[in-house]
Automatic annotation (TrEMBL):
Residues 333-386 form the Peptidoglycan binding-like domain. This is Lytic murein transglycosylase. Residues 1-19 form the signal peptide. PANTHER family: LYTIC MUREIN TRANSGLYCOSYLASE, MEMBRANE-BOUND LYTIC MUREIN TRANSGLYCOSYLASE B. It comes from Aliisedimentitalea scapharcae. Pfam families: PG_binding_1, SLT_2. Residues 25-314 form the Transglycosylase SLT domain. InterPro entries: Lysozyme-like_dom_sf, MltB-like, MltB_2, Peptidoglycan-bd-like, PGBD-like_sf, PGBDSf, SLT_2. Keywords: Signal.
């Protein structure tokens, strides 16, 4: 069962068709069919593909019930990372050692990175979702929250159907339309689906080698740089200029070192790379340097807390110690976070949707207000900040 936010794994070109959503569901499906035929797909194929498609209210319920992302990093990461998942990850690394060797050779993706996604997406293939994929995609495209993401995926699924690689009646997966062990959307399957086990088929639901190699290829296409790190836990000195922290601000590792930042264990991965200093729960909590490869995670998922947890788990699977949790100041409840976002909006800050989630734009706004008020500008909102606003 999926516990995380919607994956954003493609860049979609805008077109007038993408604005069509809402209204009668049957009329919406008719519009999809007409668009497919206009693009050159035969009426017989189109009718067969869309036959029996229906709106799934459970998909809409799942889309609106993602409260887990309101949890702070320490709570969220402890929920997703267990000793069992670590042990199984290490076991899978041994079992598919040759597959991971191939991925590392061909795409430069560390095995820990893919193992972490495999664990979080489907618990190493055990829970891939039982939502009808076509129903899910059409339901979400009809819903006017994010039609620009889901409508193109319907036509990608249609292309897979024409190739004989998608059954609109029996293909199932996550509520947001992802399929297989590492949960890929239809467009990504078209672009990156790879036969990893040599049987002549791309079977992302039943073949771990197929799923892993396909996932590695996708991360490579999203911009992953081989032989570079993605995340490293660090210690920060007292008196550090906290206004320089956050994912949007980057400086070389050597600069961070001159400012007194040190690796918590081991040595610097690469002092020439640009990196951001992340303080997910403020200056009293854990601290990480995020390297350029860390940004690729946001092409997979837009949730900061999910991305950081996945990146951290990947380092754990590759031998890093458990983070130093520190003693962060208590955070805000979901209701308090919404109240804070409204106050920030009233002060002219763009925080996006008022959803109770401490996302990137809310963090930036918090940091600016902390600077204005003379508080430690670590982007971690507290009741003190809320009260002062």
């Amino acid at each position: 069962m999926r516990l995380f936010a919607l994956c954003l794994v493609t860049t979609l070109a805008a077109s007038p068709a993408l604005s069509k959503c809402g209204g009668s569901f049957s009329a919406f499906v008719s519009g999809l069919k007409q668009e497919a035929q206009t693009a050159g797909v035969s009426a017989t194929t189109v009718d067969s593909f869309f036959r029996g498609v229906s709106q799934d209210p459970k998909v809409l319920k799942a889309d609106r019930a993602q409260g887990v992302f309101q949890k702070p990093f320490l709570d969220f990461s402890r929920r997703l990372i267990s000793q069992n998942r670590i042990d199984r990850g290490q076991s899978m690394a041994r079992k598919y050692d040759a597959v991971f060797d191939r991925i590392e050779r061909d795409y430069g993706i560390n095995r820990g990175v893919l193992l972490a996604f495999w664990a979080f997406e489907t618990d190493y293939g055990a829970f891939q979702g039982n939502f009808n994929t076509l129903d899910a995609l059409v339901t979400l495209a009809h819903d006017c929250r994010r039609p620009e993401l889901f409508r193109p995926q319907i036509f990608a699924a249609l292309e897979l159907y024409e190739q004989g690689n998608f059954d609109p009646r029996t293909t199932t997966g996550a509520w947001a339309g992802e399929i297989g062990m590492v949960q890929m959307l239809p467009r990504d399957i078209l672009d990156n689906g790879t036969d990893g086990d040599g049987d002549g088929q791309v079977s992302l639901k039943t073949s771990a080698p197929d799923a892993l190699v396909s996932g590695g290829k996708m991360l490579s296409h999203l911009g992953w740089t081989p032989d570079q790190p993605w995340l490293q836990e660090v210690r920060i000195p007292t008196g550090l200029d906290l206004s320089q922290t956050g994912p949007a601000q980057k400086r070389s590792v050597s600069d961070w070192a001159q400012m007194g930042v040190t690796p918590r264990s081991g040595t610097w991965a690469n002092q020439t790379l640009a990196a951001s200093l992340l303080l997910p729960q403020g200056h009293k909590g854990p601290a990480f340097l995020a390297y350029p490869n860390f940004d690729v995670y946001f092409e997979w998922n837009q949730s900061f807390v999910y991305v950081l947890t996945a990146a951290y788990f990947a380092t754990r699977l590759e031998g890093a110690p458990i983070y130093d949790a520190g003693t962060p100041d208590p955070g805000l409840s979901g209701a308090q976070m919404k109240q804070l976002q409204k106050k920030l909006q009233a002060r002219g800050h763009d925080v996006g949707k008022v959803d109770g989630i401490l996302g990137a734009r809310t963090r930036v706004a918090v940091q600016k207000e902390q600077q204005r008020l003379g508080l430690p500008a670590d982007a971690w909102p507290t009741t003190d900040l809320l009260g002062r606003l």
